Amino acid sequence: MANLLTGIRLLLIFPVAWAIAFPEFLSATILLLLIFIAIASDYFDGIVARATGTASASGQLFDHGTDFVFVTSSLAGAAFAGLISPLLPVLIVVAFSQYVLDSYFLFHQKQLRMSFLGRWNGIFYFVPLLCIAASRLGFLAEFQEMSHFGIHLLSQLLIISTIASIIDRSMAPLRK
User: Fold this and answer.
1) Least enclosed by CB within 10 Å: which of 32, 111, 116, 132?
2) Within a 10 A sphere around the Cβ of 36, how many other Cβ atoms?
3) What is the distance of C-alpha 135 from the center of its chain?
4) pLDDT band for position 176 (50/70/90)?
5) CA dist list (Å): 117 to 1, 120, 132, 158
6) 20 contacts: CB under 8 Å, gap ≥ 6
7) Residue 54 carries which DSSP code?
8) Within 13 Å and on the Cβ side, how many CA atoms surround 28?
9) What confidence score (pLDDT) does residue 27 get?
10) How far apart are CA 56 and CA 38, in angstroms?
11) 166 and 154 in contact (C-beta within 8 Å)?
12) Residues of the chain with pLDDT > 90: what percent?
């Protein structure tokens, strides 16, 4: 059941990323609904896995990998649309690769080794997507310029926090 919830998010990757890059592809309301479904599936998949005793390292990798592809693809769509810097999706690729590689190869763990900052970044990567979809709602049209400024500012803050996370994870072996 938990993997089914994660699979829903996997199926939403293309339509959400495409709709963010090309606003005419889906209505703002549908886009916002799909993003909320993705967030809900992300929230509940771990709860369901733990409640049913099916939590596993491979399930965690599937969940986090799906989150990674979802937010990176969607933020790449936002970069294509000129709403955020293309640096953010690139840095997310670097940070996630580092997360997986150092968890399994550097620290020789059998599951992903989360960090405090990386966890919060992973949550906050969904926020610009929500803001982009909300800014396209008809009743918010008059605030679109201000919304785009806020989205750009948020993406800059996420770039800084992602760089900080990459540096923090790079320093982890020195702390051992």
Assistant:
1) 116
2) 13
3) 19
4) low
5) 29, 5, 23, 11
6) 31, 74, 77, 78, 81, 83, 129, 132, 133
7) -
8) 13
9) 95
10) 21
11) no
12) 70
pLDDT category at 116 given cuts 50, 70, 90 is confident
Domain that holds residue 81: 2-175
CB contact at 8 A, 13 and 23? no
- Distance from C-alpha of 77 to C-alpha of 142, rounded to nearest angstrom: 23
Helix (H, G, I), strand (E, B) or coil at 65: helix
Q: What is the pTM of this model?
A: 0.91
pLDDT, average across residues 25-48: 96
d(CA 71, CA 92) in angstroms, rounded, equals: 9
DSSP 82-130: TSS-THHHHHHHHHHHHHHHIIIIIS--SS----HHHHHHHHHTHHHHH
Largest CA distance in the chain: 53
Count of domains forming the chain = 1
Which residue is it, tokens 């803050």? 157
The amino acid occupying position 83 is L
